[in-house]
Specification:
The protein is of the alpha/beta class. Helix content is about 25%, strand content about 10%. It has a three-stranded parallel beta sheet. The radius of gyration is 41 Å and the shape is flat.
């Protein structure tokens, strides 16, 4: 039986509507084509390479002296440092009394001590606000953090009555604010 090749017998023609026809692309010179190809090679995804040293061969240990990692698997000779799971704290000196314990300790550090941000009355006198809170002081750049406690000290003088809200006041500051016709409100820490 004879087979018929469809390519030879039937000829098909493509009918393309004029709306789908693309405009002919302008022909580029050979130099421009080469430039474009070079740019694609430099910028394309196929140009990405794995950086050198990203894939490291696994070090197989305990395979004898012919493995390239020695008889003792690169751990030197016997002892504490050749054992699995060895872990020493920072400053460990091989059993010798560490330097941190040899140095004498001086002084005392009070853990419960509160550190206040200090603000004087002279700084408050420059402000235009009638009610002064830690938020106002932070906005004006007098203190750095509104969440840390603020203490008002009595250096300077007030001319107008202000409502001052802070975590602590010195006796002098308290009396000077009240003399100027102001009001003192203590903020309780959470």
């Amino acid at each position: 039986m004879r087979t018929v090749n469809p390519k030879k017998t039937a000829k098909t023609t493509k009918v393309v509507s004029p709306a789908l026809k693309e405009e002919p692309k302008p022909r580029l010179k050979k130099k421009e084509v080469k430039k474009q190809e070079k740019a694609l090679r430099i910028l394309g995804l196929e140009a990405l390479k794995v950086p050198a040293g990203a894939h490291k061969k696994r070090k197989y240990l305990g395979r004898g002296s012919s493995s390239g990692h020695g008889k003792t698997s690169t751990r030197g000779s016997k002892g504490q440092t050749s054992r699995a799971g060895r872990d020493f704290y920072t400053g460990f000196e091989g059993g010798q009394t560490p330097m941190i314990r040899r140095f004498p300790k001086r002084g005392f550090f009070n853990v419960t001590r509160k550190e206040y941000q200090i603000v004087n009355l002279s700084s408050l006198a420059k402000l235009k606000a009638q009610e002064i809170t830690p938020q106002v002081l932070e906005d004006e750049g007098i203190i750095k953090d509104k969440d840390k406690p603020v203490k008002i000290l009595g250096q300077g003088a007030l001319t107008s009555g202000l409502t001052v809200k802070a975590h602590a006041f010195s006796k002098k500051a308290n009396s000077l604010i009240s003399k100027a016709g102001g009001k003192v409100e203590i903020i309780k820490e959470a």
